[in-house]
Amino acid sequence: MGGKFQNINFDLDNLPTMPLVASQMMHLINKPETSAAALAKVVSKDPAVAARVLKIANSSFYSMSRQVTSLSTAIVVLGERTLKGLVLAASMRGMNQSFGKIEQMLWEDSMVCALGSKYLARKLGLADPEEAFMAGLFRHIGLVVLNTQEDKASDFIVKLMGSGISNIATQELEMFGATHAEIGAAVLEHWKLSEALSLVALHHSDVALDKGADRSSVNLVCVVNIAGQMPGYFGIFEKQRELNLDNSRGVKQLGLEQERVEESIEEFHSIFKENRGDFLS
User: Using one digit for the tens of pLDDT, what is the confidence trace for 207-264?
Assistant: First the structure.
């Protein structure tokens, strides 16, 4: 298996395939003549995915002027790019062979970061909101893969998501041969998603892009880096973490006013608390 992100010390022959409904939908979206009805037909193949798309579409986060009751209407009202993100998000739950405490934690972590990234991207005018949603959604896809393929990953993930772990990359290299960031970048490349999404997965924590990286990629990585604090701050994990932007690499890299970022996060926190059931159920 070749590719820019494939040269890592990890068994890439068993990478998960993109969930079927998501794969079929993305194939259709790339065809300009595809109708909303055709997309709705594909999404409806998985009732659980369809239900979650409608539930999130009707949350106040999307500020619909009327109740959305059909997938075709949701596609027309939300747009194909928003639908793509929602379907990918809903489909991620189906990647797990089982769905217990750790899987729920990873799912909630991904959804909060995705929605938070979208909100910050739009509020601060830093990145395309739909691309930010997908970038936030997939920042920890490497952890999802580790959880499904490595028996010893579960305890590591619980510690990482709960109290945090210092020298994360060093420990991951020793335990698994590659970091979750490297694995995530390889998965997204395997799925033939954009290089920008792979770069976010690879650098969501360290924000260490090459000096020649384009501004849009830098902004996208930084937005997801900032939004990555939201799951812990919003109480997704067992121990709620304080919001600490003093050492935020994303804030520093973009030279943002910390107060403005904090205000934006608090605004989204209010939206999240109001819609938590729709976002995470």
Answer: 998 888 889 999 999 999 999 999 999 988 767 788 989 989 999 999 999 999 999 9
Write the pLDDT tens digit of every residue in 116-173. Answer: 999 999 999 999 999 999 999 999 999 999 988 888 888 888 888 876 666 788 889 9
Q: pLDDT at position 167, please?
A: 79
Q: Domains plus CATH for the chain?
A: 14-95 (no CATH), 99-281 (1.10.3210.10)
Contact 213, 42 (CB under 8 A): no
More confident residue, 28 or 140: 140
Tokens of 32: 């300009």
Q: What is the C-alpha separation between 151 and 147, in angstroms, rounded?
A: 7
